[in-house]
C-alpha cells in the first residue's frame, strides 16, 4: 500500500513556508489505518524488539502507540504535556525552536529496567522524541527503539536521538 498517497500535504501550515503532513486522511481510511498498524507491528517484530511497554507522545503518538502495544502484547504509557496527568509525575523540560515545553509521565507508569519503545506519528527536528527518550532514561528505563509513521529526513531529527534502532514507514 502507498501510505504517502493517504497523507495530505497542507502548505503554509501552521505558518508560511511550512509544508504540513496531515495524517487525518490516513486515519479516516480503514484499510490504510489497518495497514499502518500492521506494518509498524511487522517492523517491530523484524527488529526483534523485546519491550515491556510502548510509550506514545501526546497526542498522535497515542493513536498509533496504543494499538501497536496491543498487537505486540505490551502495555501502553502516555507521555503528556505539562498539567494533563492527575497523579504524581516525572517531568522533563526541553527546548523548542520558539521556546520551551514540558513532558510528563505518571511516576508509577514506568519502572527502572522497563524496556521501552517510543512511538509517534512523525519525526521532524527530533525535539519531542529526544525529550521523551531523556525522560524514560532518567527514570532508569532501557530505551530499545523508536517507531514513527513519517520521517522528514531533511530536518535531521535522527541526529538528536540516542543510538537505538529507528523505524519509519514513510520518508519525505
From TrEMBL:
<dbReference type="InterPro" id="IPR005764">
    <property type="entry name" value="Ade_phspho_trans"/>
</dbReference>
<comment type="similarity">
    <text>Belongs to the purine/pyrimidine phosphoribosyltransferase family.</text>
</comment>
<protein>
    <recommendedName>
        <fullName>Adenine phosphoribosyltransferase</fullName>
        <ecNumber>2.4.2.7</ecNumber>
    </recommendedName>
</protein>
<dbReference type="GO" id="GO:0005737">
    <property type="term" value="C:cytoplasm"/>
</dbReference>
<dbReference type="GO" id="GO:0003999">
    <property type="term" value="F:adenine phosphoribosyltransferase activity"/>
</dbReference>
<dbReference type="GO" id="GO:0006168">
    <property type="term" value="P:adenine salvage"/>
</dbReference>
<dbReference type="Pfam" id="PF00156">
    <property type="entry name" value="Pribosyltran"/>
</dbReference>
<keyword id="KW-0328">Glycosyltransferase</keyword>
<dbReference type="InterPro" id="IPR000836">
    <property type="entry name" value="PRTase_dom"/>
</dbReference>
<keyword id="KW-0963">Cytoplasm</keyword>
<dbReference type="GO" id="GO:0002055">
    <property type="term" value="F:adenine binding"/>
</dbReference>
<feature type="domain" description="Phosphoribosyltransferase">
    <location>
        <begin position="37"/>
        <end position="153"/>
    </location>
</feature>
<dbReference type="InterPro" id="IPR029057">
    <property type="entry name" value="PRTase-like"/>
</dbReference>
<dbReference type="GO" id="GO:0006166">
    <property type="term" value="P:purine ribonucleoside salvage"/>
</dbReference>
<dbReference type="InterPro" id="IPR050054">
    <property type="entry name" value="UPRTase/APRTase"/>
</dbReference>
<dbReference type="GO" id="GO:0016208">
    <property type="term" value="F:AMP binding"/>
</dbReference>
<keyword id="KW-0808">Transferase</keyword>
<keyword id="KW-0660">Purine salvage</keyword>
<comment type="pathway">
    <text>Purine metabolism; AMP biosynthesis via salvage pathway; AMP from adenine: step 1/1.</text>
</comment>
<comment type="subunit">
    <text>Homodimer.</text>
</comment>
<dbReference type="GO" id="GO:0044209">
    <property type="term" value="P:AMP salvage"/>
</dbReference>
<comment type="function">
    <text>Catalyzes a salvage reaction resulting in the formation of AMP, that is energically less costly than de novo synthesis.</text>
</comment>
Amino acid at each position: 500500500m502507498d501510505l504517502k498517497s493517504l497523507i495530505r500535504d497542507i502548505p503554509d501550515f501552521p505558518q508560511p513556508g511550512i509544508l504540513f503532513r496531515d495524517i487525518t486522511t490516513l486515519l479516516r481510511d480503514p484499510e490504510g489505518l489497518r495497514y499502518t498498524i500492521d506494518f509498524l507491528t511487522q517492523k517491530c517484530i523484524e527488529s526483534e524488539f523485546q519491550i515491556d511497554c510502548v510509550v506514545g507522545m501526546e497526542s498522535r503518538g497515542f493513536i498509533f502507540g496504543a494499538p501497536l502495544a496491543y498487537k505486540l502484547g505490551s502495555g501502553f504509557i502516555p507521555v503528556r504535556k505539562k498539567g494533563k496527568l492527575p497523579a504524581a509525575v516525572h517531568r522533563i523540560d526541553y527546548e523548542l525552536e520558539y521556546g520551551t515545553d514540558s513532558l510528563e509521565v505518571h511516576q508509577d507508569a514506568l519502572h527502572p529496567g522497563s524496556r521501552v519503545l517510543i512511538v509517534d506519528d512523525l519525526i521532524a527536528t527530533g525535539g519531542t522524541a529526544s525529550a521523551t527518550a531523556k525522560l524514560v532514561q532518567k527514570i532508569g528505563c532501557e530505551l530499545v527503539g523508536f517507531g514513527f509513521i513519517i520521517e522528514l529526513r531533511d530536518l535531521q531529527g535522527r541526529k538528536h536521538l540516542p543510538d537505538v534502532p529507528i523505524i519509519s514507514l514513510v520518508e519525505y
